[in-house]
Amino acid sequence: MFRSPACRLAALGGGGSGGARRSLPLRAITSPAIRAARHPRIISSSPAGSVFVLSRRFQSTNPPPPPAGPPENNNNDHHRDVTTPPGTEEEKPIPRGWVRLSEEELKKVEKLLGVIQMPPELRAIFDVNKVPGLPKEFHDIMVKNWTGDFPKLGMMDALRAMRYFPKMLEDIQEFQAQQEEVEEERRKRAEREARRVSFESRKPGEKEEGEKQDGEGKQDGEEKQDGEGKQKGQQRKRGTPPPRPGFQLSDTMSWVVGAILLYPLLSLFMGGDNSREITWQELRRTFLDKGLVKKLIVDHDRVKVELDREAVNSVYPGSTAGKPGFHYYFTIGSIDAFERRLDEAQQELGIPTSDRIPVSYASESNFSNLLIAFGPTLMIMGLLIWSARRAGAGMGGGGSGVFGFGKSKAKEFNHDAAVKVKFADVAGMDEAKTEIMEFVSFLKSPERFQRLGAKIPRGAILSGPPGTGKTLLAKATAGESQVPFYSVSGSEFVEMFVGVGASRVRDLFSTARKNAPCIVFIDEIDAVGKSRSEGGGFRGGGNDERESTLNQILTEMDGFNTSEQVVVLAGTNRPDILDKALMRPGRFDRHIHIDRPTMKGRQDIFKVHLKKILTNEDLTYLTGRLAALTPGFAGADIANAVNEAALIAARANASSVAMIHFEQAIERVIGGLERKSLVLDPEEKRTVAYHEAGHAVCGWYFRWADPLLKVSIIPRGQGALGYAQYLPATDAYLMSTNQLMDRMAMTLGGRVSEELHFPTVTTGASDDFKKVTHMATTMVTQWGMSKKLGPLHFNNDENQLKKPFAESTAQMIDAEVRRIVDEAYKQCKDLLTARKKEVGIVAEELLKKEVLSRDDLVRLLGPREWPEKEEFSKYFDGKGGKGTAAPPFPTESTDTPGGPEPAMKEHEDGEEKR
Ligand SMILES: Nc1ncnc2c1ncn2[C@@H]1O[C@H](COP(=O)(O)OP(=O)(O)OP(=O)(O)O)[C@@H](O)[C@H]1O
């Protein structure tokens, strides 16, 4: 059935038959308030009876109370927000909740917007000519502060005003979209009305015909329009704003825009660059005498001068003083003096009392002062807390934010992320393994021990040089016993804040207890477990944080009851500095020392790591030879050398890793990278060749010297221009004076050779001297190898200011060291003078070939007079020493760290050593 649009709308508004009221305006049926209450979407009608359908948001059935504004602002007109009363010029609608601006306000706001710099898109939105209003609250703030041409906002008002910017933008955008819809509706209605009028004015016959067509057309059109309308309605219901071209703002962006707008507003109305100091005399001369001062505002010792801008602009056109937002101020000594002076000036100028310049006394709110003073600090603190929270949140598992500081950062390896390491992967430390296996049996079947009343050890300290496999052993323990394994480094307990370490320890142990049976491994425990007395002395004060962490560890370990199956293992390189309380039985009951592996140990470790490597070499021979080449290597060095060999082989596109790759890898691990780019001039090269030949010849002819493997003049590593490599008597745990003397003499061989073959000497031997001196000093002060000093141990700790021996003893030590070195020097010089020719032969061959192997030396010098050790000949002489590479300690490394214990033998007695 055909229904006219008016009829449909009337039915919506008040019910009843549409036919009777077709031509009546809706307003005539019910009052706007009643209609709105029934159908909130209908808010008013136009004089011609047209009805606007607007969203509730812009409905003005309940106008807000009038703001305290200028009288021109007629707020009783609110019901006219979107309507045009009959007989008046059509008023531009404003959004609901907004206040229409009076003519004067409109001008002021327009002027204000003119001085604010803002992007054109925003300017298009903030157009008071299009929407002549402001949000009520915003308007109130502005009106309250509007003095003169511009509002002068305090900090609080500015901040409050800022809050309304986003809302204002949102309102305007939504409102404008709504307006477009209303326009569209109005246009459609007008079209329908026009069609109706033309239809009624036609003849009846035409009418029927036309009605049919028209009806169809209309129906079509209506359905279509209706459909569109519905679509739009649905769109709104779903809360999707109608797509609008132009400036779209997200929530955050609105705030940013708010801040952008606020900034110029603030700078316009609050201090900053918009004020300048002026003296009283200048003020008087320039402004007061000319009647340009409108008001003076006294704030403590500062007086703000408010000028009559229009007058200023006419007297001083283009001056800054006339700019909006700018003001002068001057400082006063006391208010009394200022008032007196002002009075006098006005009297002199003949200003009548009634026209005197008004003076007001203001003080900025305490809050804004505080905000200005502490604002930046608060901001920085906020930023810090925020970033700490973010960092904390990213820490995963360690709690979040600053409040997660106290959480332990222990990594958990449990059944899922199972520890794959087994005892079979740990080689070369059989004793340590046996010791620790007991922990595994305890964790696996505790009743076996408890039945007999045995107390299970709480933990073990694994000590030893770096890379010897302490962590690996702990992991293997966990892997074997199939229990969760918590690994944490001692340094992770050390934080900037006191108490954090202790709290992390608490957290770690409480987690461990919850997951018992389990193993806790604290690596590098010396970071927190250092002896507490160490902090004292002249170095000043202890470390509270470290101590409290240590105390917490002690307490936690005491707290375990014997049935709790939590085993604590700790790793350290420095067991000597650990606090005694840690080491006592009941805490870390077992001390397991893991030393560098022996020859056999290295062989086993090589076997473990070679499993992952593709090689066709005979494994027994390979591991034996590699182990012989690497005395002093720790497990980590071996793992590194094996991996390095594989890399070298891959670089050479080899099908498998061969002996030569392993030897090159070992050489590289010991000596560092070859420095092919370092090119020496011929004279320098000659010196290096004779220097190295000196070492080599000494090593060849001294009986107790280590067997020589290789001499090279290819620069390597840091500053080594050439080197001679020896294979120290494998795993020498004791050294005799003979060995020491020969080693020292051999070390001096380079310098002596330079002296014998060149007119001058070079700096190349400095490192040799350092080693020789150190060796001789140790012989005298620690190894009791000086008859004069006797069997005494003088510990000369460099950290102690006072030497632990008398001055005369010091002189004696110096004399003895000198004597021993002199003797070694003489021994070397005698040999090299006698073997000058041999040194020349070796040096010249070196210059030709750059690297000489043991075979070359046999060829040049004849076989060595002294038989080599069995192990050496097994792996090196058997194959003719071909392709031999680096043993771990080149000539210079004569003194193994920790000091091998030499035999008590006096060298002064002139006993034959060779
Ligand atoms: N005995 C060993 N058997 C097999 N591999 C070993 C052995 N010792 C060390 N390694 C290898 O060296 C690597 C490093 O060892 P690990 O981290 O256990 O040494 P660490 O003694 O804990 O060193 P640090 O004292 O510096 O912490 C291991 O991952 C392993 O590949």
> Structural class of the helices, strands and pairings?
alpha/beta
- In what range is the share of β-strand residues? 5-15%
**Main sheet makeup:** 6 strands, mixed
The hetero molecules present are: adenosine-5'-triphosphate
Low-pLDDT segments, ≥5 res: 1-89, 206-252, 268-272, 393-403, 535-541, 878-914
The rough form would be described as elongated
In CATH's first tier, which class of the largest domain applies? Mainly Alpha
Q: What count of helical segments does DSSP give?
A: 30
Counting DSSP E segments of at least 2 residues, the number of strands comes to: 22
| Strand line-up of the largest beta sheet | 12-14-15-16-13-17
- Determine Rg (CA atoms, Å): 49 Å
What is the percent of helical residues?
Answer: 40-55%
Q: How is the CATH topology of the largest domain named?
A: Methane Monooxygenase Hydroxylase, Chain G, domain 1
> Architecture of the largest domain, CATH level 2?
Up-down Bundle
Cofactor: Zn(2+)
Keywords: ATP-binding, Hydrolase, Membrane, Metal-binding, Metalloprotease, Nucleotide-binding, Protease, Transmembrane, Transmembrane helix, Zinc
Protein name: AAA ATPase afg3
Biased composition (Basic and acidic residues): 186-231, 871-880, 903-914
Task: Write a structural description.
The chain is α/β, with parallel strands linked by helices. It folds into 5 domains: 28-204, no CATH class; 271-364, name from scop; 405-595, Rossmann fold (3-Layer(aba) Sandwich), CATH 3.40.50; 600-671, Helicase, Ruva Protein, domain 3 (Orthogonal Bundle), CATH 1.10.8.60; 682-902, Peptidase M41 (Methane Monooxygenase Hydroxylase, Chain G, domain 1, Up-down Bundle), CATH 1.20.58. It has 30 helices and 22 strands. The protein has a 6-stranded mixed sheet with strand order 12-14-15-16-13-17, sandwiched between helices. It has a 5-stranded mixed sheet with strand order 7-10-9-8-11. A hairpin with a 2-residue loop joins strand 5 and strand 6 (150-151). It is elongated and about 130 Å long. Residues 1-89, 206-252, 268-272, 393-403, 535-541 and 878-914 have low confidence and may be disordered. Adenosine-5'-triphosphate is lined by residues 426-429, 466-472, 523, 571, 573, 605, 608, 635-636, 639. In the C-terminal section; belongs to the peptidase M41 family. In the N-terminal section; belongs to the AAA ATPase family. Keywords: ATP-binding, Hydrolase, Membrane, Metal-binding, Metalloprotease, Nucleotide-binding, Protease, Transmembrane, Transmembrane helix, Zinc. Its cofactor is Zn(2+). Pfam families: AAA (PF00004), AAA_lid_3 (PF17862), FtsH_ext (PF06480), Peptidase_M41 (PF01434).
